[in-house]
Each structure stands twice: as C-alpha cells, then as structure tokens.
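Hello Y.,

Per our agreement to keep a running log of every chain we model this quarter, I'm adding this entry. I've kept the format consistent with earlier entries: sequence first, then predicted structure.
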Amino acid sequence: MPSLKDIRGRIGSVRNIAQITRAMEMVAASRMKRAQDAILAARPYSDELRDALSRVAAVVGEEVDPLLARRPVKRVALIMVTTDRGLAGSLNANAIRAALRWTQERVEQRTGDGEGRVEIEAITIGRKGRDGLRRAGIPIAAHFPQLGDRPAFSDVTPIARLVTEDFLDGKYDEIDVVYSTFISTLTQRPEIAPLLPIATPKQEEGAEARNDEYLFEPSPREVLGRLLPHFVAIDLYRAVLENQASEQSARMIAMRNSTDNAHELIDDLVLVYNKTRQATITREMIEIASGAEALGG
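Predicted structure for the entry above:
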C-alpha cells in the first residue's frame, strides 16, 4: 500500500497537470474561434471561384491550358496536411489512416496504359503526417513545416507553385490533397480531394453541362494562364485553413477531456488517501491499546 506522502505527491502532480491542460484548453479555444472565422470566410470565395473557373474551362476545352489536361495516370503526388504538434486527439491519426487506405487502393490500380502500377509520392505539410507516411514506407518528395497558427496565403503560394510546376513538367500525372475538414467543434473528418488536373463539370460524374458563352480579353489562354494557378493556390490554402480549424477544435476538446479525467483521478486519489489515513489511524490505535493491555496485564 502506498504511503500517505506518496499519495499526496501524486495528487499534487495530477493537480498540476489539470492546471496545464486547462490553460491549453483556453489557448486552443481562443485560437479555434479565429481559425473557424478564417475558414468560414474562405469557403464562399473558394466555392464561387471553383464554380466559375470550371464552367469557363468546360467552354474552352483542355487544349487551352495544360492544367486542365488529363493524361494516363502513372505517378501521383499526395499532399498530406497535418499538424506539427500532437495533443489533438485522433485528428492526425484519422487523416494518416485515411491517406494510407487511399494510397493502398491507388497503388493496386493499373496505370492508364495498363503497364505497371501507379507510383505515389507524398508532399507533407506538418511533421505528424511526414512521420506517419515515412513509417508506412511512402516516399516523401518534399516536406514543409506547419505554417503557424495564422497561415497566410503567401505561405501556401510556394507550395502551390512547386506542385503546379511538377504537374506541368510531367513529374506527376495527378495531384491530390488530404486534410481534416472542419465540420463542427466536435466533428472533424479526413477528406481527400483532387487538386490537379482541374476538373470541369463535364468531367465530374453526375454534373450537368452548361452552355455558357464568354468573351475573353486578351485571349482564353492568357486569362486561364493567370487564373488557374491562382485557383490551385486558393484550393490548397483552403485545405490548410480547414486543417487549422480542425486542429484547434480537436485540441480544445482533447484538453477539456484531459482536464476532466485529471479531476476524476484526483477524486479517486483523495478517496484512497482518506482510506489509507483511516487505516493508519486504526492500526495505531490498535497498537496503543494492545501495548496498554500488555502493560496492564
């Protein structure tokens, strides 16, 4: 049985942990509100831009811009967006598990020309994703640390430029991005979305074709040559913001659960302390009474 001093030490340690997790919960809550506002503001712009550009791309056709071109898929790049830090519950584990499951399915597919299997490389944003994919044996082509608590569009632009150039150079035939999409404070869901080539309504299953007519100045090639790379960066920026909001929400909930568990453990330890103290007092009283009886006899 542990001594009273040991139990008091454990109670003090758990109480200190509860104070730390409570402070981390408050910090995550303040960051969560800012991250949620950022993604809720970015979603309408991203959705409208996707809708407009996809309709324009459907009118002009794939031959106008190489970012619209579809070719037999032999090499795929997966952009993995996770966090650098842990203490976010199962957020990163769920995203990594979804990425590995998707990777296994793609690797088992045949290439577009039927020769060999699809090759997959990863481009990671965040240390947790890099470590998880590396343990699974997936090649890491490039790694970027997490972009901080307030990621800016300029932080994502170099990454978008890198993957765009790789796609144009033919290094990859398809580029996808996996991240944790923000549903609510209690719910975050891993999502894998195509990034390149940019899909048009005619290429998306179940979408209705529209007969929009556009006048381009100076030309469709020049207009889309400026807009499509920007759209790729916007899409990637949205993924980063979604993951950021998901991270702060998951961390706040995880820290709240940790604080509640610490308080429950303190209550259990206090009960053990009282029982141990009572047993100690009872034993000492019995020893005193036995000693007095022996002296009196």
